[in-house]
Amino acid sequence: MLRYGSVILALSLAATQVGTAALAQDYPRRRTTLLDMLFGRSDESRYERQYPAPPRPVGPRSRKKPAPAAAAPARPASRPLPVTAPVPEAAPAKIDNAQKILVIGDFFASAIGDGLQQAFADAPGTVIETRSNGSSGLVRDDYFDWRRQLPKMLDEIKPALVVVELGANDRQQMTASGGDERFPSDAWFAEYQKRIDAVAKLVTRRKIPLIWVGLPPVKSPGMSADLIKFNALYRKAAEAGGGEFIDIWDGFVDEDGGFVLTGSDVNGQQARLRGPDGISMTDAGKRKMAFYLEKSARKFLGDMASPGLVRLDATSMPDLAKPQEDDRERIPPMKISDPALDGGDRLLGGAEKPPAAKTPSPRDLLVSTGIMPDPPKGRVDDYRFEDKADTGR
């Protein structure tokens, strides 16, 4: 029995060694580490299979570079939504018999013309004609002679009103019949006054209303002081000829009379009025210049300067004297309150008044006699004393 057990034990040990060797071939032995000694080896690590690296392909190497991968088609950029610009409101078309305002002068006159275009944009009965030369004046008539050019403009345009703005370029030597006059001598100012009067009379002699606009201040204090003297000469010539002088100086200075680049526009809002050079005008400044003479211009032009005007004349009014083509009998209009409309003699709901009562009412008695009648017997306001003998008690 003991011998039989030894044989079985030997066979078991042999089988164990064979199995261990087989496992050792498939699962290489792992080296024991300090962590394994302390915490024990993981069961998963005992059965980790170590697969050999895949074999390398056999054959000659190809030096041909692999074809690049096809680039993915680019996504089309999203089209921006179309932006619809606001349609500007169209100005009313000018009528055929519109009256014209002629604006002449230097670069300040051009600014006034632009401002008047905005001021009368909604007046179809008014047209602004600007004839300006930015470097012109009344001194250098060899460059541009307004006394010769103005009559031609008046004949061509036939204005209903003339606006003059000159003088910003006139602070220089003048050549007169007696020789050269240096600015600002007394002889210079005397000759300059004659030239101003001549321009004003070219307009007023034709019975055309004249508005002479004064010069605005500029950034240079010395130049502004000379422009104040010029404005006094313009006022004298305009008023002497029956025209009107418009002073715009206060609209472009502060409370102390100093020059400002920014000030109140026609709406009372702060805006940039002058350019960086301290002379030119911005759009807000141009509109403000026109604002000062807009009222006077509308006074001279009358209804033609009104917004939305449609002038009715012989060409636009219907011919009321023309006989009517339809000669059918006309039935006179009938009043809605006419009782005969429905064949009756009184309106719907109308009734005869009841006959007057023959017995006067208590109200009539009170009004006529002033005595209130006795209240009915037994009413709460009946205070008459009743005798018991009368009542049988």
At the fourth CATH level, what is the homologous superfamily of the domain at 101-304? SGNH hydrolase
Strand content: 5-15%
For the record, the CATH architecture of the domain at 101-304 stands as 3-Layer(aba) Sandwich
Structural class: alpha/beta
**Tally of extended strands?**
9
The CATH topology label of the domain at 101-304 is: Rossmann fold
Calculate the terminal CA-CA distance, rounded to whole Å. Answer: 157 Å
Poorly predicted parts: 44-51
Helix content: 25-40%
Q: What gyration radius follows from the Cα positions, in whole Å?
A: 56 Å
Topology of helices and strands:
Layout: H1 2-26, H2 34-39, H3 43-46, E1 99-105, H4 107-119, E2 126-132, H5 146-157, E3 161-165, E4 174-176, E5 179-181, H6 186-204, E6 210-213, H7 221-240, E7 244-246, E8 262-264, E9 270-272, H8 283-301, H9 362-369, H10 388-391
Parallel strand pairs: 1-2, 1-3, 3-6, 6-7
Antiparallel strand pairs: 4-5, 8-9
Give an overview in words.
With about 400 residues, this protein is α/β, with parallel strands linked by helices. It has a domain at about 100-305: SGNH hydrolase (Rossmann fold, 3-Layer(aba) Sandwich). The protein has 10 helices and 9 strands. It has helices spanning about 1-25, 35-40, 45, 105-120, 145-155, 185-205, 220-240, 285-300, 360-370, 390, and strands spanning about 100-105, 125-130, 160-165, 175, 180, 210-215, 245, 260-265, 270. The strands form 3 sheets. It has a 5-stranded parallel sheet with strand order 2-1-3-6-7, sandwiched between helices. A hairpin with a 5-residue loop joins strand 8 and strand 9 (about 270). The longest helix has 25 residues, at about 1-25.
